[in-house]
Every structure is written in structure tokens, then in C-alpha cells.
Amino acid sequence: MKLLQNIKYILSPIYHSLMYPKKAFRYRKIMENPKQYVGKIYYAMNQRDLNWEHPSDLNEIINWLKIYGDTEQWPLYADKYRVREYVKSKGLDNMLVPMIGVWKHVWNIPWSKLPNQFVIKPNNGSANVVICKDKRTLNKAKLYSSGLIQEHRKYGYANYEPHYMQIKPYVMVEKLMDATKQAVPSTSLIDYKIYCINGEPKYVWVVTNRTVSSCETSIYDLEWCSHNEYLKESPHYHISKIEVPKPRTLDTMIDAAKRLSAGMPFVRVDLYEVDGHAYFGEMTMTPAGGFIDFHTNEFLQALGKEVRLQNERD
Length: 314
Fold this sequence. Notes:
- By secondary structure, the protein is of the alpha+beta class.
- It is built from ten helices and ten strands.
- It has helices at residues 2-32, 34-46, 58-68, 74-78, 83-89, 140-144, 147-154, 162-165, 250-260, 297-306, and strands at residues 99-103, 118-122, 130-132, 171-174, 191-197, 200-208, 215-221, 237-239, 266-274, 277-284.
- Strand 9 (266-274) and strand 10 form a beta hairpin.
- Helix 2 (34-46) packs antiparallel against helix 3.
- The longest helix is centred in the first third of the chain and has 31 residues, at 2-32.
- The termini are far apart.
């Protein structure tokens, strides 16, 4: 049975390669009229047209930026490998998770030279992370057929996020951070996701106990007052029933988010705190592709109205 599974894993990349022309054709069709494509998704989600002339809620803002904004640097910010240089340029070297290595393909990774524990992830895409706690039990055949190989061929299609399609794909291996040395027990690293508007941090969306199928969330202002009234339940996102204590490094996180978001109408800066030290995670220009369904409409409106769009048409 295990042999058959391994054969299936190894043949999987061949199947995805055969399907790639079909996906590429679909993407070309989207690129012919991305505004229309995005508008259809927004309408299906909200039962109203996206207001392109005067966007107001945060989802409208994100999609307006995708079509009309200055997105030249978005591929850099969204690239989990190249963004490290940007983080260094802001004087935040000490917040980078230690890098073990980066390779063009998982097949190029010299497994014998890696430590026993590590994290493998693509430099683009989302949530496609492999946590290895014991190298001896790592199923390499399954890993070779995983999205770490294929993700760069498809990520960015569904919600029209072309900046992901412009990222040269790599596979990164980083140090495994100790999730037991956090503010509260969590099956995953606690994500402190800071919403920044016009270069100013506003709210911290906290994600705990993340799995492939679900996670728990809470939200705080910069004084660490809870605002879970801004959250919505869904099959994937569950409102946390516990109070996440204020991180010891909150001021450091806020300062880092402010530096990294300078000059940007909107960005979400994701950070961690492990053993009393703040770490950079990633920068997200288009959370949920611009179709956020885990916040209330009132909260999306409140955030969206604060964004200044310099090129917004009269």
C-alpha cells in the first residue's frame, strides 16, 4: 500500500504539468478583463456591484488597488524570500526567522545536511507550509508531489492576484520556531496580523490553533482592547473563546509594521512572538484575495473609509 501511495505522489507532478496549459488559458482569459472578473466575484459575495468610482469597504479598496493602484513593488513584498532584503533595509534584521537555505525545487534540497527539525515553504502562495519535527519520518515522496512544486503555477488565478504570478518560485527552509514558548497554548505559531492603513498600524488580528481546515481568531486595537464584535464565524474561521494576553513585544511589532508599511495605502504585516522575541512573518497586500469574509461589514467599511487613494477618480 505504501509503495502504491509513493507512486501516486511521484506521478502527481506529471498530472499537474499536463493540466497547466488549461490553467494558463484560464488565466489569459481573466487577464483580458480582470476588472469584470473581479467585479463578478464581488457581486456574488455581496449581492451588490463593486463601486469602482468611489470604493469604500476594505474589499473594494483592495480590488481597486489591484486594478488601478501602484502594484509595481507588490511582487517583492509578497515574495517570502526577497522580502527579507526589504525587511533588512528597514533595519529589522533581528526580526527575521533564521534561514537554513533556499532552493529552486524540493528535489534540490540536500536532506542529509539539514537539521532534524525545520520548516519548508514556498516563497509564494499561502498556507502551504510543511513542519518537520523529525527528519527521519518525513515522507519525501509526498513532499515531492505537494503544492511546494505546483503552487507557483496556479496561485493568484482564482482571485486575480497577478503579483504572485510574477514571483520567481523557490523553496525555503527555515528554523522551526518553538510554538510552546508563546503567550498562550496554541497548536501553531500565534500570528499577529497587523492591519496598516496609509503607513499606520490600526488593528491586530490574532490567529491561533491553525490547522489545514480551521483556526481560531480574535482582534485587538493597539491598546490591546478586544474587539471580537468585528469578527464573523465561518466553517474555517472560529472566534476564539480565550483572551490572548498582550504580547511583550507589542510596541516592537507596531514599530516594525509602521516601518514596513510606510507609503502604502494598505497592507497587512504578519508577525510572531516566540520566547519574548518578535519575528517577521510576511506582508500580505491582498488578504483573502480581496474577498475577506471573516470580518463584519461594519469593520470592513470602517477600515476602508480610512484608506487614502491618491489616484481615485472623481
